[in-house]
Amino acid sequence: MTKADKIEYGTFEATVERSRKLEEDLAVNPGKYRVLTGDRPTGSLHIGHLFGSLQNRVRLHALGVETFIVIADYQVLTDRDTFEMISENVKQLTLDYLAAGLDPSDGKTFIFPHSHVPELNQLLLPFLTLVTNAELDRNPTVREEIQASGQKRINAGMYTYPVHQAADILFCKGNVVPVGKDQLPHLELTRVIARRFNEKFAVRRPVFPEPQPLLSNAPVILGLDGAQKMSKSRNNAIMLRATEDETAALIKKAKTDADRTITYDPENRPEVSNLLLMISLCTGREPAQVAAGIGDGGAGTLKKMLTETLNEYLRPLRKRRAELESNLDHVRQVLRDGIAEARRVGGKTLEEVIDVMNMGI
Ligand code: TRP
């Protein structure tokens, strides 16, 4: 059995270690890499996204790495019936990207919805022939999403979207994919597809790279309930687009505990520690140091400090966002430019693919 015959997940620790090495090399050789990452347009983003994925993208981009950001609008159709909001959500997502500091005007960042890039979508067809039903059925992330969706009838798009995601990544020969842990099975599948494609069709001159995951070391932010990951659907999130008053009201209602003395103890005091962590992310001060400063000032003082710190930290971002929102032509132009570049790059890849598959005429 050759290596390409099996999907190997490897250990998480090994992935973390490879990711760390990759991180080092990115700083030294940014020109060797093309980052491809993306989101589903299911709504606007919250501060969990900002401190997690968005700032990481801005940082990579600042190293001089070319960055493609795919808005995976087709993927929205896999686990929900509603589609009415997709276009509005694409707009909101793009506003959040731009406000957070991703800047396409440097000609190295491209933002585009994949529905507008036929060259990308066409790769789905050959890619589907490189994986088995059993492999798609085993994908742990897909299994979890099926459970979470609560749907009785699971559409075939749900099982096959990881293959579509491989097309998202490989159409532009992306070789670095910043993702969270839940996306690792999809990335492993992408690597398998790249490898099998090359081994079957392009032995002499490989067409696709085997892209590497880049795990961010940003801490996970819990929601204001202190119980689960921050998420809009769990109603425990502070949205980037929220006003300062809305932010204050949300923080006021955040869950804390009965101990008046504030300490940083994520294990035993997750709610209070999470609020301290947010202050820490805005100020660069250690959470324990922030806690010591509050002492027995209690949860009231903690919340007041967080409200002021967070609103101040987000003020420039929110100002930029409001300006951009009043000029949606700019947002539309960003997407048009992103689509044009994605189609250009995807067209070149598709030509190579058709050629090596012996489908040229
Ligand atoms: N599946 C990803 C998510 O649900 C979104 C996504 C689509 C993506 N295509 C991608 C992420 C390509 C990284 C690379 O969040």
In short:
By secondary structure, the chain is mainly alpha-helical.
Description:
- Strand 2, helix 3 (86-100) and strand 3 form a beta-alpha-beta unit.
- With 361 residues, the chain is mostly helical.
- The chain is 54% helix and 7% strand.
- It has a three-stranded parallel β-sheet. It has a two-stranded parallel ribbon with strand order 4-5.
- It has two domains: 3-218 and 328-356, HUPs (Rossmann fold, 3-Layer(aba) Sandwich), CATH 3.40.50.620; 244-325, Tyrosyl-Transfer RNA Synthetase.
- The structure holds tryptophan (TRP).
- Tryptophan binds at residues 36-40, 70, 72, 75, 165, 168-169, 177, 179, 183.
CATH overall fold name of the largest domain: Rossmann fold
Fraction of residues in helices? 40-55%
Measured by DSSP, the beta-strand proportion falls in: 5-15%
Architecture of the largest domain in CATH? 3-Layer(aba) Sandwich
Structural class: mainly alpha
Shape, per Cα inertia axes: globular
| CATH classification class of the largest domain | Alpha Beta
Overall tally of domains:
2
Topology at a glance:
Layout: H1 12-28, E1 34-39, H2 47-62, E2 66-71, H3 86-100, E3 109-113, H4 118-122, H5 124-128, H6 133-138, H7 140-149, H8 156-170, E4 176-179, H9 184-201, E5 212-215, H10 244-252, H11 270-283, H12 287-294, H13 298-325, H14 328-356
Parallel strand pairs: 1-2, 2-3, 4-5
The structure holds tryptophan.
Labels describing this entry:
mainly alpha, 2 domains, Rossmann fold, Tyrosyl-Transfer RNA Synthetase, binds tryptophan, 3-stranded parallel β-sheet, 14 helices, two-stranded parallel sheet, 54% helix, 361 residues
